[in-house]
Predict the structure.
Amino acid sequence: MSEIQKTPIAANHKVDDIDFGKLFGSLVDAKWYIAGITVLFSIIGIIVALLSTPIYKADALIQVEQKQTGGISTLVSSNMGEMFDQGSSSSTEIAIIGSRMVLGETVDDLDLTTVVTPNYLPYVGKGLARLRNQQISINVSHFVIPDNMRTATVTLVITDIDSNNFTKGRYEVTNAQGNILFKGKTGQWSEGHGYRLYVTDLNGTVNDSFTVTKRARYSAIQQLKENLTIREIGKQTGILELTFTGENPVEIEQIINSISQNYLMQNVERNSAEAEKSLAFLEQQLPNVKDKLTMAEDKLNDYRSKNDSVDLDLEAKAKLTAMVQLDGQLNELVFKESEISQRFTQEHPMYIALQDKRGILNDEKKRLEKQIQKLPETQRAVLRLMRDVQVSQQIYLQMLNKSQELSIVKAGTVGNVRILDKSQDYFSPIAPKKSFIITLFIIFGFILVVTVIFGFVLFKRRIESPADIEAIGLPVYASIPLSNDQVALDKKQTRMDEVHKKLLSEVNPADLSIEALRSLRTSLHFAMMEAKNNILMISGPSPSVGKTFVTANIAAIIANAGHRVLVIDADMRKGRMGYQFSKSQKLGLSDYLSGQKTIAEVVKHPAIDNLDYISRGDIPPNPSELLMHPRFNALMEWAAEHYDMVLIDTPPLLAVTDAAIVGAHAGTTLLVGRFGENTVREVEITKQRFEQNGIEVKGFILNGVLHKASSYYGGNYGYYNYSYASDKK
């Protein structure tokens, strides 16, 4: 009884078209490879996630509000309050926080120009130390470098640990060249070669080393900027969030607190700066005004004593009072003008109104001065002196009042900034995101392996269908499926007298590969009808394509059909035909071509009827030259005369030129290629090289064909399985 098992048969397709079914099938074929690479990358991702240094974040909230004059400053006149009431936008305050003025203070406060880095194994040492809880550290409170250097880097090595206090010990400091600069002890100043160092404590073991760097202040500020983020929460809320990231949670908390405090202090100092400058100016002018007042009073008293205490009549007193009031108003305008000039130009309406008012007061003053000129001389002099006294008194009192008001403004300045939330570090690190890293590596590994597979399929164009070969004009005579029995025979180690059992046509005549070779035998009968002789050369583009397997088994099949067959192993470099026929590789073709043996002496008779065999012989130093010797031509003529068919197994043409030499004597030439290994381009080049040597390649044998998903989904050529069914239940 029998049964028919059918596999898909491909339709013809254009070679240059992208076969998406084949691409999908190639992924199915490589599913375990894809899974393995993906798992490998996931393991790498886990390792990277575990060894990556945790990054922490600390934040603080600051409120920037529009400055309002209140509290003590409400006692000050409205004009004085407006003078120092100046708000600023959040964007301005953000720029101020990120300025070197504020960040530089933090660098100085925390001595961030000194950087201490433990020395671990490259890449993995730091992570391993953290996982094992074996991290090392030292606390350097001061590091001073020579005056002629802006930056410096030294290496500190622990040389001894105090047995009574493991945070104390001794160390030595070396430069980049490895020269010892000085030795020191924790808790003490150590110095040498212009360097000074103070280490308070340490955490490590003997021979642990650290890199201590003194960097420029500007570099430290720039690094603060890189790790500092400032943003306004909401829109026009005036609430700023400061966040800082780093490896040390304690340090980043200190940095954020320092930045917040320094920003607050500069804000208070800035808001009180104008009042302080004005106050300093008034305090500087008050003694001069007081001296003028004293001088005016002395002159008045002297004049009265000399003129018997001259008094003014009512009319003169009225004129004096009016004149003093005018001078007082003019002095007020001077103060107002100084305030207005800081905010407006002279073309502003308020400035113009002030100038108009001054003109009116000056006109009134001139009118009064004309009236005073009509008074008696003594009264005019007394009036002038009294006016000087009263005006000086008024100016002095005004400046004294202004000074007191400015003192109140300065004392009441608290700034328009307050710290809502002090720095608080997150308990858990914000980076790395372990799950994200692992997922990223898995995705990357999957995409990478899929891309590689697609690249091989699209660009390498390995042979997976007879249509691939027929597209270059080379007919395919047979597609030989991969035999599991042959694979097992190749792996099995047998005794020399049992080597002949490795010939698949003898071990399992019903194997699918042998059935395909029987089909090839039929094709050869018609292919060689018009050939110049009965010599068949079997070659290939590259090694390990199965030439020897095809040659030996097709020879056995032809011999079993009653034809006399001679097999010649012409691969005198690496020929392995002897393992197929249980014969030694010694005493063969090379021995005959070199003239050491005759044809009769090199022909061997395997345990297969009608089949003779000539092995490669000893490996000669010049195989190509031996094949060009007339003895080889004589051998070909003798073999063609005494055998029904002569099969010659040759080396791959793309490796050596031996096949081109042998092909000149053969009437028929076939190429063998490996399914999924050889490329179409390799076969095409091999065919072209044979043709360049005047050798026509008759056809192609596709060996090692596998059932693959890429063939199924891509609609490629398959083969029928018409096998014998067992009668056993």
User: Anything to note?
Assistant: The CA atoms of residues 36 and 303 lie 116 Å apart.
